[in-house]
């Protein structure tokens, strides 16, 4: 049985995260510390997701979500066949993704991280880029306000 986009859209982010962990073969007691919930709460989220998806058991609900996400990934990654993608477009697309990833704020709080040195430097650069963007925007707003007053 396949899940419809409406069924998947009806799942909360927490339900999706838990179903992804179920798909990895984890039990509720193993999932609970990861998502910072009690095992009974994990079971409740799984039961609600099963009911929403119409799944018979937790593994089939997790499989339905994984199958849907896999099919979505293939649809979103299909190349545009109407025009050839050259090296310039590939480089520009990669650069755009990099800039976009640098502009998003890093995760805050949660459990202790397991980042490598390179990962920590990347997160520091993300924070720096975000800070530069915010300060630049505030400076432009301030300069515009000062010019409007004079």
UniProtKB/TrEMBL annotation:
One of its GO terms (biological process) is regulation of DNA-templated transcription. SMART domains: HTH_LUXR (SM00421). The chain crosses the membrane at residues 129-149. Signal peptide: none annotated. InterPro entries: Sig_transdc_resp-reg_C-effctor, Tscrpt_reg_LuxR_C, WH-like_DNA-bd_sf. Residues 8-65 form the HTH luxR-type domain. Keywords: Membrane, Transmembrane, Transmembrane helix. The keyword Nucleotide-binding does not apply. It comes from the Bacteria. The keyword Cell wall biogenesis/degradation does not apply. GO terms for molecular function: DNA binding. Gene3D superfamilies: Winged helix-like DNA-binding domain superfamily/Winged helix DNA-binding domain. This is Helix-turn-helix transcriptional regulator.
């Amino acid at each position: 049985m396949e899940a419809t986009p409406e069924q998947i859209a009806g799942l909360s982010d927490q339900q999706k995260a838990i179903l992804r962990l179920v798909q990895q073969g984890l039990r509720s007691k193993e999932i609970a510390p990861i998502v910072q919930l009690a095992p009974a709460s994990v079971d409740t989220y799984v039961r609600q997701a099963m009911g929403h998806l119409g799944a018979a058991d937790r593994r089939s609900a997790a499989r339905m979500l994984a199958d849907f996400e896999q099919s979505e990934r293939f649809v979103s990654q299909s190349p545009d066949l109407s025009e050839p993608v050259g090296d310039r477009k590939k480089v520009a697309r990669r650069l755009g993704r990099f800039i976009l990833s640098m502009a998003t704020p890093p995760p805050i709080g949660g459990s202790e991280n397991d980042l490598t040195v390179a990962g920590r430097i990347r997160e520091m650069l993300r924070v720096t880029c975000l800070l530069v963007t915010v300060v630049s925007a505030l400076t432009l707003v301030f300069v515009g306000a000062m010019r409007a007053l004079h």
